Design the sequence.
């Protein structure tokens, strides 16, 4: 994680996925919220990191001659993940086999992975809840990956929950789900996101005082002392 | 909320949505339970109120000339809601954009709205959980309404979760979801519902004593001292 | 149908829904193709007309006191349809009850309705196929409307197949389905659509001669003799 | 419950559904995890028991002459359930009417039923949460069974959540859902499952020490002191 | 097929599934049209017969010890079908494996089966189209039944396309799909259905003459010369 | 297309997808039939070829800075396709934007592509029907690809209709849909498939003579004169 990322991520940790989705929409990006994955625990902190993409396809039973070479699996991918990344799995919404299980997840935690996002499912709910690794998933299941899925590749452009994700896109995940920020737009989106947070705070303040919504805009400039929420 | 409503609502707060769905079925109404919305917190009280209906349609990108006049939005609708009403949103099950966000919800709370039911999603989960307004929703999301939805009208007949809802129908929502009582049947349904609650209590009592279910009916009249659960 | 419409419609009858969807996308309108409805016969001509919108909600069993007044039904709506309009029904994708049956459709034909689009189903397949009225539907069914649907209103903004439709929007339907053109953009979209048709023709001509696609753009201006297909 | 079952069940209570799904897959059984049902509480213990199957079909309105004889209902089935069994309901994923309600569930608890699995829904969430009976369900609802479902038979082969279940198959349910073990394979699967649990524990131990996953297999024999988790 | 059936079926062959669905709805039966199956050819005649029900469940891989006894398969069931019956398969909507293939269907034709209804799929489209047996199916597929399905039983109450079907219910299928008439109501429904056909014909006649729909009801008695369509 | 392929393909053109799915299942491959795509015309010949895979992901609106480099599009991929290949598109079942349109398809035909399989949709139905290129598709639509899809890569392992497809797998498509044969198994599967065809022909012959299915197996060896159907 570069120095640059460190400042950017610090800023983004103060911006909700709601505000980010709003800012991205204003820039014409209407499809950046990932359908499906929700946090396994509501007390996870908001996480920010660069996407390490993983692409799964349906499994094919293991038959001599069916495939020329051995496929790589999760445990191979894990060793390629840089610290601080967020693993984003394109599992095509498969809910009846896991994309990740507890042993792989524990290794990911050891390697400093910042979090996991899958549009499929994970298994060993209690083990994962006990671990400290923040996970956003579309479901819980018991069967191992090979039941339905094969890892086809990593660090390729993928889809996750109906959204395009490119390697190194910025992922932000909190209690409202997961938003994907194109790498080239990250600084601008972070800046606009912090502004939006300040506006929201001011608006909530006003509403608490009984001001009707029609009288809320625009926020008076200069008067704002608030800083982005953390 | 008329005096009349006050007594009716008091009665209905003692009747579960289960009992109401059963009573409505006996009257030939088989489609009064709303598919999708569940309470954001399990400790919400049962809520009762008249429906303030809101109708959403898919959004159309903002292009000069596309529409003759500005569309009304949530913040306009909120000011038209009478105290004690329950806002019921027909969002066509849209889960990738919110029907309500925290600022609008806070204003609704200020205005005395009794609760929210949406067959779509809401955003800012933590803010909404922190607020005191009881919300039944089909999902949590980050994107703002305009990403996918436009408010087309309010106080029209709508569908919510596959159920017809007319303005001023009686809405009852608890931990088993949301039931819609046609306005003209409310008194009768409330009365029958209270009876059903008494019967359920007596049956549970008998089952606890080890009586098989085949010996449960009919409930002996006159012996019942129990009153409706609260 | 005004004189104006007559020229506009004549132009649009020479533009495919494909070209229209492409032109609308270039203008930033990405959601104008209606999901579901397909023509009942592949030999229907392309039809063009202004939308007469109809809005259905789930039916509620007929119980005394449930509703204050009689609901209007299809046969009431039909008499309000102007000649040349296209009836567009928001049936919420309901496939197990019809939005239209043969008797109502025959009356619509008598009144000069230009066509029907429904995101639900129609019934009496053979009767409808025999009739001359062009119909785009998402399914065929046997049960009458009242089994699942009530007509809530007409000439209101609706959704049809996931697309917003306002009364008097321009509907174009052909063998690739149905496209909705916002009324205020119709002239511009028609003009651009005719250009697109010419470009397509030129490109197909080039491809037939063996030119690779990479060498196709731009179309040489001045050389084009072709006119829009009819 | 035979003596035999008692030992088998004791063993299986130490094996997670994850390990069982993995063992079954290695034996060529790839479709033994039930799609849909999840535990109503995360603190339920893992339950093990023989399947008492129940088969539901869509309800048909009660019309004189429609059916020759009275259908049996839940309360009849309950009295046929042996102590220690797990009731497994094939509700075809119906979520808008309950397969079980609180009174029937309380009677099942009285009769010593070990748990409930339904691919449909249950009603009276708070009552069921308060009861001690462990329930795996695909949803919560308010309407009673008759709204959409009739009990067609019990102790027949059924499907539950896309999986074949035969009477007396072994059901294991925990926080990752429900796995079905064919009766004839139970001893072998239990033995292999206990081995798998030991392997998992050893692997997790190694991962905690920082061993990469590629160096994990095989587990060194003889060194293992650990016993199956409980 | 009893003498009685012969007259009843003759009458029902003159009544469309539309009219039957309408008549059944008036008697309070709102769920008798089967979702999914459509005729493989539009020129099939309307077919009428008693239901021979078949019930499929998901397949379980063939493992020694998994099942105590050999399961019966389609070819066993076929020999139990009486001439004139309509085979109705509950395949739970499975579209990626066939419920019937061409060899079994050819044998069914030989045995005098009147038709097939499946809420799943069939395979060998060209062979089946070439055969004379009328088939209503939800899809076409290539894989054989065992890929996903096992025959669990026949002549039991089943669900087909979301509708309860009891052995010996009357099945009517035409170009608008399949309707199930409870055995005990067949005579009454047939009589009412013939009346409805006459009313429809009269109404269509009137509409052709330009009479608005509001003036159509009631049909003048005594003037009707028409008989049921064939 | 190698000499080898030429003989293999000739053999496979005599084997139905039904027989191939059956043979693959016997070899333990249960998931080789592609869900969704059906032929646009029923009179297409059976096609056989090696898969040229194309992988689509959801589109991202075109924003400066969002992506570092220009994405390749269909027209780039087309020039990389070898004569005789079958283009297989992983469109994730997207039905509201095309994977292919008429101009690209015409160029594919020019280049000698043998056919197209997409689990998404195509556009310009009439143009494609008029072309000679056989197409298996899950739907027809009007919007161009960019509305919802971007081409991410070609000749990578993909999923199509829930089935893994590797570059150079053998694709066979006929009126029952599309089957994928792993490249390494092709010769064996072709041989077994031809046997199966002969068995089917013999069985149908027997059934036509009135032999019950129980007496059909095994086929008497030596007596068979028939050859594979073409």
Sequence:
């Amino acid at each position: 994680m570069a120095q640059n990322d460190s400042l950017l991520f610090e800023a983004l940790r103060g911006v909700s996925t709601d505000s980010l989705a709003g800012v991205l929409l204003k820039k014409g990006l209407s499809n950046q919220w990932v359908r499906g994955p929700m946090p396994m625990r509501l007390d996870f902190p908001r996480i920010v990191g660069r996407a390490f993409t993983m692409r799964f396809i349906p499994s094919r039973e293991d038959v001599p001659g069916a495939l020329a070479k051995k496929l790589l699996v999760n445990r191979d991918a894990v060793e390629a993940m840089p610290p601080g990344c967020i693993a984003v799995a394109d599992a095509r919404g498969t809910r009846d086999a896991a994309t990740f299980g507890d042993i792989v997840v524990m290794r990911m935690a050891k390697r400093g992975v910042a979090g996991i996002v899958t549009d499929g499912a994970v298994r060993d709910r209690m083990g994962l809840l006990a671990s400290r690794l923040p996970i956003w998933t579309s479901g819980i299941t018991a069967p191992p990956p090979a039941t339905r899925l094969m890892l086809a590749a990593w660090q390729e452009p993928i889809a996750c929950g109906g959204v395009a994700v490119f390697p190194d896109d910025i992922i932000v995940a909190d209690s409202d789900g997961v938003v994907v920020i194109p790498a080239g737009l990250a600084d601008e989106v972070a800046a606009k996101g912090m502004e939006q947070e300040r506006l929201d705070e001011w608006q909530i303040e006003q509403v608490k005082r009984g001001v009707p919504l029609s009288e809320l805009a625009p926020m008076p400039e200069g008067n704002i002392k608030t800083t982005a929420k953390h």
